[in-house]
Amino acid sequence: MLGTDLLRHTAMLSVAVAVLGALMQPASLVQPASLGAASPASLRRSAVMVGQDAPQAIRATRLTGGSHRAEDACMMAGSEKTVMILFGPPGAGKGSQAPKIVEKLSIPQLSTGDMLRAAVAAGSEVGKQAKDVMASGGLVSDELVVSIIRERITEADCKEGFILDGFPRTVEQAKMLDEMLGAAGDKVSLVLALEVPDEVLTERICGRWVHKASGRSYHVKFAKPTSLADGATPSEETMLDDETGEALMQRADDTEEALTKRLQGYHDQTVPILAHYEPTGIVSKVDANIKPEQVWTSIEKVLP
Ligand code: AMP
Q1: What is the pLDDT of residue 20?
Q2: If you count Cβ atoms within 10 Å of the first and of the last residue's Cβ in the chain, which end, N or C, has fewer?
Q3: Quick one: which atom of ligand 1 is closest to the CA of 134?
Q4: Pocket test for ligand 1, best of 116, 143, 201 (most atoms within 8 A of CB)
Q5: How many A from CA of 300 to the centre of ligand 1?
Q6: Are the C-beta atoms of residues 170 and 140 closer than 8 Å to each other?
Q7: Strand partners, 285
Q8: What pLDDT is attached to residue 95?
Q9: Is the preceding peptide bond at 168 cis, omega within 30 degrees of 0?
Q10: Computed over its alpha carbons, how large is the radius of gyration of the chain?
Q11: Structural element, H or E, at residue 46
């Protein structure tokens, strides 16, 4: 009897040492998966300082053969991971609101569009597969984006959770996401849907110019760079970044033709995702056809 107690205490002590050891690891700066040379902006969006946490301690005990008792204790102490889907049509303002959500929740934004654009710019195999279909406003294959996300969410900065931007785009992707999260004991905890009518989106998207290196976004009407004089025609000569003076550019798929296809894809393939998640009560819809500051006020109310 005494021997059994001694053994149990020794086992508990070694588990506690393993958990403590894991907790005392130094914090690390983590960068996203290497799909190619990501832009500084997308790197910034995905790089987050993280320390070790309860789930990591659980993994540490698994690796060191720790007992389920330690897992249970950590599970009770740890909070549920925030897996948020930032949902909305192109031009809804996801890119503008996401950095504020990142700051508030201290979890990274994972934008499949940014990752794919970085892959295209780097000329990687993924980029070669995605380039033409992206430029035309179509969707790349479910398998390709799911594999990108599957790899990315294993990075250390995703341990507390992450914000999915531009993913899932089809019900099939949503099901694959649920399955991959479920395998790790996680699930989608919030779908935040930004709502804007199509006619507003066309004007927003087709007037959008970006500074590629920083990700800063401008608009020929709503957010003009200082270089664009009143009445001047927007061009690479007149559209310059306020901070660096470098030429701005338009995304290859920010044309009216590609946008028509993107919006059609959004309504046909992406919107049904809301019906997929609605029964679980995690969908929050926000009117995003108002000033960005007001949109942010609405968003803040539904964030965990
Ligand atoms: P975005 O920046 O989210 O508008 O994405 C730009 C383009 O990348 C899209 O028009 C698609 O061609 C491609 N893309 C991004 N995310 C996905 C996804 N989840 N599924 C399929 N294609 C995607």
Answers
A1: 41
A2: N
A3: 12
A4: 116
A5: 26
A6: no
A7: 193
A8: 85
A9: yes
A10: 22
A11: helix 40-46
29: helix, coil or strand? Answer: strand
Helix (H) or strand (E) holding 49: strand 48-50
Residue 133, Cα to own-chain centre: how many angstroms? Answer: 21
- Report the distance separating Cα 285 and Cα 100, nearest Å: 18
Enter the tokens of residue 289.
């056809």
How do beta strands 48-50 and 28-30 pair?
A: antiparallel
Is 66's pLDDT higher than 60?
Answer: no
pLDDT in tens, 193-237: 999 999 999 999 999 999 988 888 899 998 999 999 999 999 999
Alpha-carbon dihedral sign for residues 220, 111, 41, 303: positive
Tokens read off for 266: 């959004």
What was the pLDDT predicted at 38? 41
CA 10 to chain centre: 43
Residue having the nearest C-alpha atom to atom 8 of ligand 1 = 113
By the 8 A CB rule, do 113 and 91 touch?
no
Single-letter code of the amino acid located at 253:
D
Report whether residue 158 contacts ligand 1, using a CB cutoff of 6 Å: no
- Distance (angstroms) between ligand 1 centre and the Cα of 134 equals 7
pTM of the model: 0.73
Give 190's strand partners.
84
Establish whether residue 109 lines the binding site of ligand 1, counting it when its CB lies within 6 angstroms of any ligand atom: no
Mean pLDDT computed over every residue of the chain: 80
Instruction: Say if CB 194 and CB 97 are below 8 A apart.
Output: yes
Catalytic residues, which ones? Answer: 94, 169, 208, 251, 262
Dihedral in degrees, nearest 10, Cα atoms 95, 100, 105, 110: 20
Pocket-testing residue among 45, 87, 112, ligand 1, by greatest number of atoms within 8 A of Cβ: 112
